[in-house]
Amino acid sequence: MSQAQVSDDDIFAGHEGGKLSVAATRPITHARDLSIAYTPGVAKVSRAIAEDEALAQRYTWADRLVAVVSDGTAVLGLGDIGPRASMPVMEGKSVLFKSFAGLDSIPLVLDTTDVDEIVETLVRMRPSFGAVNLEDVAAPRCFELEDRLIEALDCPVMHDDQHGTAIVVLAALRGANMVLDRSIADQRVVVSGAGAAGVACTRILRAAGVGDITVLDSRGIVHAGRADLTPIKAELAETTNAEGRTGGIAEALDGADVFLGLSSSRVDEGLLETMAPDPIVFALSNPDPEVHPEVAGRHATVVATGRSDFPNQINNVLAFPGVFRGALDAGARAITENMKLAAAEAIASVAADELAADHIVPSPLDARVAPEVAAAVAKAAESDGVATRPLRPSA
């Protein structure tokens, strides 16, 4: 059944009672089972952990548990709807963790937007989980929150709206360039949007060697001559826009090789005609792309969206399950830039033998993706010196 055929009744029925439950991994059918799983047997395990906290990694689920954390301030295309209304999304995220990477996770929606309070809450809860997936936290607060948590916690922390998006965008751009037989080193990319996703995408594209990037916010091109830049945007101004362009979307798109839409802005069809020959257009705003893919297809050779009803869906589910699985497999203390780059390479490699203009990334349902990403991320964690467990030998 396509997305268009799903009724409201189907949707609400699919969420009734929530989408998660806790399942026991050990059956309790006899008195002996009870005495092992709970009292008196459990006391022996608790005493052992009290003497050596490292044993909690072996004898509890906490080390493999992801906390999916949100304050409900930037949910999907819905904006600031609050923690309770964000819970269905966080439950869905946990379903995807389990379905694609076999990881257990717990949604935690917090009734505060204070960074200090969120950090303190998660620091105090640290014995209960092994990683933190930040979700749907509004910019610019999301940048500070992620940085603070990375500093405060000795476990993987990743804001998926930033880095999951960035990983899949890089994988898709690599796929598009393989189809077109081009190099990203020779390209100028226009990034429309300087929020969470836009900043992270700009950073990973720079790290991957993109020739030049022009970033736009709601006031036009981000450049060093502007006096209204936040610290994050000031950093972007220093590291992008090598040609020193000023103005708006028209000036940015003139001669550009790639358009990456990560905002609610609209792009007139006529501006696509000013781009370089056979451009690439990633119009990723949901549910309404910056330019309709059919319109973009009249000018661009490769078109991608964030929607499932058009080819080349840029979907974070290609990244985050495998990234966290690989980080936890390696016992990583953090998620490094090289781990993200490795994830993008792994996603691109899965689609390498099937590439076409309408198939630049694997399907979100491709069962090969998460294991490949996990293996690549774990290897990168070891190379970067953040792994605490040896890699398992390949079969």
Give a structural overview:
This protein has two domains: 23-160, Malic enzyme, N-terminal domain (Rossmann fold); 161-395, NAD(P)-binding Rossmann-like Domain (Rossmann fold). The strands form two sheets. A six-stranded mixed sheet has the order 7-6-5-8-9-10. A four-stranded parallel sheet has the order 2-1-3-4, with helices on both faces. The relative contact order is 0.10. Helix 5 links the parallel strand 1 (65-70) and strand 2 (104-109). It is elongated, with a radius of gyration of 22 Å. The protein is of the alpha/beta class and 395 residues long. Helix 6 runs parallel beside helix 7 (141-152), helix 8 crosses helix 15 (337-350) and helix 14 packs across helix 16. 42% of the residues lie in helices and 11% in strands.
Layout of helices and strands:
Blueprint lengths: L7 H8 L15 H7 L3 H11 L4 H4 L5 E6 L12 H19 L2 E6 L5 H11 L5 E4 L6 H12 L4 E3 H21 L7 E5 L3 H12 L4 E6 L2 E2 L9 H9 L9 H5 L4 E4 L7 H4 L7 E4 L9 H4 L5 E4 L14 H10 L7 H14 L18 H15 L12
Parallel strand pairs: 1-2, 1-3, 3-4, 5-6, 5-8, 8-9, 9-10
Antiparallel strand pairs: 6-7
Helix pairs in contact: 5-14, 6-7, 8-9, 8-15, 14-16, 15-16
Provide a compact summary of the structure.
The chain has helices spanning 8-15, 31-37, 41-51, 56-59, 83-101, 115-125, 141-152, 160-180, 196-207, 231-239, 249-253, 269-272, 293-296, 320-329, 337-350, 369-383, and strands at residues 65-70, 104-109, 131-134, 157-159, 188-192, 212-217, 220-221, 258-261, 280-283, 302-305. It is α/β, with parallel strands linked by helices.
